[in-house]
Amino acid sequence: MNDDQFEQLDCSAVVADIWLLLDNECDAGARTRLQGHLDGCPSCFEHYGIQRELKALISRKCGGDAAPEGLRERLRLEIRRSVTIRRTL
Ligand SMILES: [Zn+2]
């Protein structure tokens, strides 16, 4: 098996699975595939970074429980804005 045969994941599938990765709810094979994709795909990697920060923020603010959808959405927008600012500086 060489790099040319490396399985290409669809970005939308990766984005959908990022929460599973962050919650440690995917098996080792799926984790390897996702991380392999993140290493080679800047847009998915950025999305992963945003979700990771979001998850950390939510667990700090809410003691680890799931945040209300409104809060999660607001934090997502805030983090996305700060990431965008950081990239343009
Ligand atoms: Zn991707």
Molecules bound to protein: zinc ion
- Straight-line distance between termini: 41 Å
Order of helices and strands: HHHH
Structure class: mainly alpha
Number of strands: 0
Protein name: Anti-sigma factor RshA
Domain Putative zinc-finger: 11-44
InterPro entries: Anit_sigma_mycothiol_RsrA, Znf_put
Organism: Gordonia spumicola
Short description:
It holds the Pfam family zf-HC2. With 89 residues, the chain is mainly α. It has one domain.
Give a written overview of the molecule.
The chain has helices at residues 11-22, 28-40, 42-62, 69-88. The protein is mainly alpha-helical. Mean pLDDT is 79; it is low at 1-6. The longest helix has 21 residues, at 42-62. It has one domain (3-88). The chain is globular and about 35 Å long. The protein is built from four helices and no strands. The structure holds zinc ion. The site of zinc ion has 6 residues, from helix 1 and helix 3. InterPro entries: Anit_sigma_mycothiol_RsrA (IPR024020), Znf_put (IPR027383). It comes from Gordonia spumicola. Residues 11-44 form the Putative zinc-finger domain. This is Anti-sigma factor RshA.
